[in-house]
C-alpha cells in the first residue's frame, strides 16, 4: 500500500525518501511555525561512519519514529519543542511506540 504511493509521490512531485538516516534537528521557521529543513546523520559507505547532512528549503517533513527516536528529535530541536508542545508531551510518554496521524494532501 505504501510503496505505490511513495513511487507516485517520488515520480510526480520529487519526494525524497531518506531511509537509513537519523534526524538530529528539525529546523523551524519561527514566524510561520513550519518545518523548513532538517539536520540528519547519513549512514553510508563501507565504514558506516555517519556524515552530518543539512537539508534546507523543505516543503514538508514526514518522520517515521518510535518513542525513543521522537525523544531524540524533540530534544535536538528546541524550536520544534516550543512550537509543538504536543510532540514534547508524546515524546515524554515512555510506553508509546506508535503515534498515528491523518495527513491531508491538498495539492
Number of helices: 4
Span between termini: 20 Å
Structural class: alpha+beta
Mean pLDDT over all positions:
84
Instruction: Compute the number of strand runs.
Output: 3
Q: What percentage of the residues does DSSP assign to strands (E)?
A: 15-25%
Give the helix proportion (percent range): 25-40%
- Residue stretches low in confidence (pLDDT < 50, at least 5 long) are none
Describe this structure in words.
There is one protein chain. This protein has 107 residues and is α+β, with helices and mostly antiparallel strands. It has one domain (20-107). The chain is 32% helix and 24% strand. The protein is built from four helices and three strands, in the order αβββααα. The protein has a three-stranded antiparallel β-sheet with strand order 1-2-3. α2 (67-75) packs across α4. It is globular and about 35 Å long. The two termini are 20 Å apart.
Amino acid at each position: 500500500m505504501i510503496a505505490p504511493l511513495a513511487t507516485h509521490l517520488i515520480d510526480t512531485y520529487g519526494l525524497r525518501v531518506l531511509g537509513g538516516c537519523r534526524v538530529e534537528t528539525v529546523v523551524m521557521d519561527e514566524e510561520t511555525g513550519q518545518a523548513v529543513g532538517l539536520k540528519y546523520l547519513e549512514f553510508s559507505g563501507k565504514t558506516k561512519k555517519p556524515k552530518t547532512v543539512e537539508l534546507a528549503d523543505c516543503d514538508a517533513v514526514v518522520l517515521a519514529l518510535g518513542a525513543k527516536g521522537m525523544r531524540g528529535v524533540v530534544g535536538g530541536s528546541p524550536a520544534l519543542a516550543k512550537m509543538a508542545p504536543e510532540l514534547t508531551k508524546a515524546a515524554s510518554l515512555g510506553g508509546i511506540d506508535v503515534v498515528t496521524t491523518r495527513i491531508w494532501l491538498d495539492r
